[in-house]
Every structure is written in C-alpha cells, then in structure tokens.
Sequence to fold (593 residues):
Amino acid sequence: MTVSEKIDVQKLLYRTIEQLNGLKTDFSREIESLSELKKRLRQGRFHLAVLGQFKRGKSTLLNALLGEAVLPTSVIPLTAIPTFIQGGQKLSAKVLFEDKKPPVEYTADTPAKFVDFLSKYVAETNNPANQLNVRQVEVFHTAEILRNGVVLIDTPGIGSTFKHNTEATLNFLPQCDAALFLVSADPPITEVEIEFLKQVQKKVPRLFFILNKVDYLTEQEKEQILSFAGNVINEQVECGQNDIVFCASARLGLQARQNNDSELWAESGLDSVEAYLVDFLANEKNEALSGAVRKKAADILAEVLMQIQLSVKSLQMPLDDLEKRLEIFRENLAELERSKLSEMDILEGDKQRTHEFLEDHSEKLRQKSMSCLKSIVEETFSKLDPEQLSEDAIEKSLAKAIPVFFEHEMGKSTEIFQDKMQQVLSPHRKRLNKLIDSIRRTAAELFDIPYQQVQSMQDFEVARRPYWVSHQWTRSFQRIPRGLLGKLLPAGVRKSQLARRATEQINELVIQNVENLRWAVFQNIDRSFIRFQSELQARFEQTLMATQGAIEAVLKKRKEHSEMVANELSRFDEALIILADIKKSLVSFCGQA
Ligand SMILES: Nc1nc2c(ncn2[C@@H]2O[C@H](COP(=O)(O)OP(=O)(O)OP(=O)(O)O)[C@@H](O)[C@H]2O)c(=O)[nH]1
Ligand SMILES: [Mg+2]
Fold:
C-alpha cells in the first residue's frame, strides 16, 4: 500500500465516523473503535534492530543513519544496554530502571555531551554487569528515517565475554519486525555469528545483511569476502526474501553525514541502505498495518450496517409483528447466553490447568537448575587447589553462570507458554466466534435482512511498546562469618563444610530464581486470559447491542414518538447507501493487499 492509499484509508475512517455521528443512534462504541484504528494507522511502530557480533560497527552504523555521533562507540565491547531510538522534536534521552527508581531524562546541547550522558548508562566500562539496574534506554532524535514510526534499536553485541547480553538479545528477538545483521571482514563471519544467525532467522521475519567496514578492503578483497560471507549465509540461512546483502562503511558514512558530503555518503554504501530502509520498510510496515486496520474497520462497518438494516426493518414492520419477532429472538438469545456461560466455565478450567502446567514446568526447572549449578560447583572443586577453595571462589563461578542459565530458560519458557496459550485459546476463540456469529444469523433470518459476515475474528495486535526481556537474577550468597570456614581447619573438613554450604546456597539461589521466572510467566498467563475474556465479553455485548438493542430502541421510539418514524427511516436509508459504499472501498483495498 502506498502512502496515498494509507491516506485514503484514513479518509474513509474519517467519513465513517462523520456519518455515525450524524445518526441519532448511539454508535459511541463503534466511533471509539474507529478512532482507535485511525490512531494506530498514524502511530504504527516498526522495530528495526541492528544485530551482530560485538565490534562489528552497529552503533557507528546507527550514528551514520542518524547523521551525527550520538551513540557511544569504541574499540572494546561496549553497548551493554539496548537503546531504542525513535522520532522526537529534539535530541533527548530517557533511562528506565529495573527497580522502582524513577527514570532519568536528559536533553542535550551537543552530540558530544549526549554521548557522555549515554555512556554512563549503556557502556559496559561505566556500568559493569549493569550495576545501575538499567532496563532500557530511549533516545529521541529528529532524523528523517525515524519519521514513519520506525524505531531503530542498538543492541549489545553477541559473543563477547558478557554472555548474559547474548541471552538477553535472543529473548528480545521476537519483538523485532526486521533486523540489519552486521558482519565484517575482521574476522570474516565466525562460528558464534552463525549460531546466532540461526536463532535470529527463526525469530525475525525480515533480515538484511550488511558487510561493514569495507573501507579496509581493496576491491578484490571486497569481492572475495563478499562471496565468502554470501556462501556462508546462503548455506546457513534459507534463501528467499532474506538474501539482500549491502556493502558499507559506517565510519565513512558518519564522516560523510557530519561533513554534508554526498559523494562520500554514496561511496560509503549507506545511501543505498538508507534509501532501501526508508522506502521499502516503511511501506512494508504500512502494508501490514493498513491491512489489519482496513479489515477491522470493514468488520465494524458490517456490524453497523446490520444494526441500521435491523432498525429500518423494525421501523417498517407492523408493531405487533415486531413484538412477536423480538420475543422469539429473546428466547434464542437466552439459549446462546447459557452456551456462553458454560464456555466461560471451560475457559476458567483451562486457566487452572495452564497454571498447573506451569507448576510442573517450574518443578522440572528447579531440578534442572539444581543439577546444573551443582555441576558448576563440582567443577570448581575439581579445578582449584584446596588452598584456593573458598566460598568466594564458588560464589564467583555461580554468579557467572546464573544469569546466562536463567535468561536462557526464561526465553525457552516464554516460547513454551506462548505455544501453550495458543493451543488452549484457539478452540475457545473458534467456538465463541461461532456463538457470536449465530446471534447475527438469528437476527438476519428472523428479520429478513442480509446477513453480514464479519471477517477478521482474530485478535487485533495490541500496540507494542518496546521492552527488553532481561531480568535481574539473584546471584549473590548470604554471607556467613568467615571463622566458620576458617583456613586453619584440616583440608578435608573444610572441603566438606564448603560442599555442604554450597549445597545450601544453591538451594536458595534455585528457589529464588525459579520463583522469579515462574512469577513472570504466571503473570503473563493471567494477563492473556483476562484480555481474552474481556475482549470476548465486549464483542458479545456489542453484538447484542447491535441486534437486540437496536430492535428494542426502535420499538420504544415507535411507542413513544410514532411521529418520528418517517424522518428516522429516511436518515437511515441515506446512511445505509453511504456506509455500504465506504465498506465496499475498504474491502476492495483489502483485496488489493
Ligand atoms: N574502519 C572502519 N571502522 C569501523 C567502521 N564501523 C565501525 N568501525 C569501528 O569499529 C569499532 C567498533 O564500532 P562500534 O560501533 O562501537 O561497534 P558495535 O558493534 O556497536 O560494538 P558493541 O557495542 O561492543 O557490540 C569502533 O572503533 C568504530 O570506529 C567502518 O565502517 N570502518
Ligand atoms: Mg555498540
């Protein structure tokens, strides 16, 4: 869909709202939903992440695309916290924390000062192991590329000694709509990158490869490395839409933008990257989003049309006939209401069973983590001399392993439970949709009006805020007085005391961390069920209002103000023609998509 078609859809939504406002019937719910759709169309976000091994030039590339150096870059592994860069009025930042600490906000005078500010939070050197508990950093920038709701995300490089970052990045991938995957010639694509790429490919719908730092290379070297990287990528990644490879020099690109040098910008290769991203990705975003918006709007209109047709019929029919039919309709509805209640009971049961499944899952995870942490302690015992063995040494080896292990398990659990929820909810969705549909069918048959089918019964994707699924994992011991494990004790006794202490500590750590993970999943499950239930309840009620509600309203009006019937009829007739026409346009757009 082109931008002008997007504007056309916006106009159609606007005209529909205008029509509904003009009718003297309460369409406030529909108007609210249509306004929400208009907003979604305007604000739609597109998450484009820059991924790759550490030091491939991710932050430099983003700086070049933004046109100035605002993200810290360095020769040592640096970016430790994901940074979300979105459109804004001026260069500013917001740092969000894990704990309840309020966010820190900053507006910069110069890019250099901005880099200094960000470095305090995102750089591994200044905030080692994320001591400051930063959850994510948001940057607001005026760059053109961010205009269309595109959010660029600078991610921590994978494969550095900070393994925890790699796991957090993997867990974040499902939120990316597309990614730029950076490789470079020094060294050419590594095994760690290939493993990472396989994961990325499973979770990110669109990938673009960039061979960065080509300024190092002669033409011949560039061709060699490009064909090498191309072969490796082709072997590892199923080809198709994902095989676009760009050559670029982020460093030259940044220089070009800083000096307003368009020749150098072209030479850096980033002109093609930018042109591609701005046009194609922004349109692709519009495509998916407008498709969903058009379908949803067409559905709302289908219900509105049915409601108006029902009202027209109810206005035309002899009064006693209308009362009779309404009575039959009410009887039918009572039966459907009973079916809905028993469906909701089954849903509640399924929620309990999903929680039980989580308890089972957590128990297995407790056992698995216990044996994993125990083997880490045993390894420490076997590697170190008795004199070097200390509670500190054991704690250090556990502290290193815990975030990696649990972050990984968190990712796996999230996937397992996403599938589980899909499995559990999808039959409910089907049955409840059928139930709601039969309200419409019954009304159509009983009142002899065309049945309007509602197409998209799927959940409408909720507007996503970027979030980084990294958690704080407990990794430190409860200290005990030094004397108890004193070095003066015979080696054998010390060792067995240490082993006993280590087992106690592992127990504690496992309990705390599994609980942390279990609680996060538990809340997700609950939230999904609540959203599902309230959405269906709302749809059920909306359909009742559009059918039973509409007929009852007409009946009341005819009894109390029979003189208004003719006016009302002509208003409805007019609206029917216009709205049916708008719906036709929306559906024909859908056909084109
Ligand atoms: N020659 C050359 N050097 C580059 C290029 N792009 C980046 N660099 C340099 O590579 C080093 C790493 O760049 P960064 O942008 O910090 O890399 P990164 O991928 O963000 O690194 P992490 O945040 O640690 O994962 C810096 O010294 C950059 O100046 C390039 O196109 N050519
Ligand atoms: Mg970086």
